[in-house]
What does this fold into?
Amino acid sequence: QSRCQVSKISAAPDMFFPSPSQAWISGIRAGSVTSCGNHVKASCCWIAFNAEAAGVLGIVPLECEDGGKRTISQLCCHSDVVTDFDFSPFDQLLLATGSADETVKVWRLPESSQDVPSSAGLTLGPGGAPVDALQFHPTADAVLASAAGKRVTVWDLGQQQPLTGSTRPLTVSSVAGSNTESSVSCALQSVPGHDNNKDSRLLWMGSSDCLISVGFSQMREREVKLWDTRKLTGATLTMALDTSPG
It folds into this structure.
């Protein structure tokens, strides 16, 4: 377990309002990476973001030090673009990164503004295709899912090997782990999602049996769909937002 703890904020009327030096982080040189994954993530200790250089993440302490000044460090992760990254919910210093170089790497960050590691603690792959998305499981420690091309792999980081894997008919752009420990009636379910081949995102609705997805319709409308995994024959609710090329 990490010794980093979530900052406690008192309730009104003694609500805490950060000063401008605490609320803003200046001097960021972020990259404009095109990928299915995240471009910024935070744990209780660190903020990570895509830097300008390919294969590099910027690492910034979440808490202010030295009178409100934050030191921006660089984590040289991969030989190609970092496409997605995620912090472990069980260990706030554990960071997983995926890349177009077809590998997944796991890093242990320091507890404070010390030197970031020069090498990964664990490297998985290459998997034969660029890693498009990855996510730690929210309720199972040391379990990580990654999507590369048309294949989704669930890794056991303790054993440093895959637990399971499956190949889909189309490229996978998003993965999500359920917060519930309830069993499912069948090992695998499949249903057509969004009709457009643009990137989509998937998210479990807390500890329920429902999923929410965001994507594009055949008419290029941005849309949100609600899915019930207990009757996964189609979307329970579809809501169109607007028409946009982005």
Notes: The CA atoms of residues 189 and 231 lie 10 Å apart. Residues 6-11, 182-186 have pLDDT under 50 and may be disordered.
